[in-house]
Amino acid sequence: MNAKKKLIDLIKDFDTAMLVTRSHDGLLDARPMAIAGAEDDGQLWFVTDRNSGKIADLMLEEGVAVTMQGSNTFVSLSGTAHAVDDRAKIDELWNEAWKVWFPEGKESQAITLLRIEPSHGEYWDNSGLTGVKYLLNAGKAYLQGERPEKDVEANASVSL
């Protein structure tokens, strides 16, 4: 499997991510977000309140980072974020659990979508057989006083 396909497959395994924006005072601001959808090209969708701080941040700087972490799998994306008002897409992505934030449901006028267009991504996958292979290589390197070789199946940097 090529690295780009593996990265996108890993992205689709996550249901939450940390979205990092740059705030008005220049600081990085990270917050956990439920992933509303992941496309075959790596684009991500989030649902948010149009009056949130992250929307204000994106009006000043559209560059973002998105990070995801599982017990043995990690993904980092960088790209741009755009607020999108698309009622059909909101209907497509709607999850009833979001009524906690939008009591009026998907008809709430406060809802807007964030579309993340990644330009670059990285992954580290130490799950399953890949993880076992890594442990064997790391053990061998340790015994030989060396660093383990990078395994492109386990980690890669990808342009999207």
Automatic annotation (TrEMBL):
Coiled-coil stretches: none
- The highest taxon in the source lineage is Bacteria
Q: Which residues form the General stress protein FMN-binding split barrel domain?
A: 3-149
| Protein name per its UniProtKB record | Pyridoxamine 5'-phosphate oxidase
What lineage does UniProt assign to this protein's organism? Bacteria, Pseudomonadati, Planctomycetota, Planctomycetia, Pirellulales
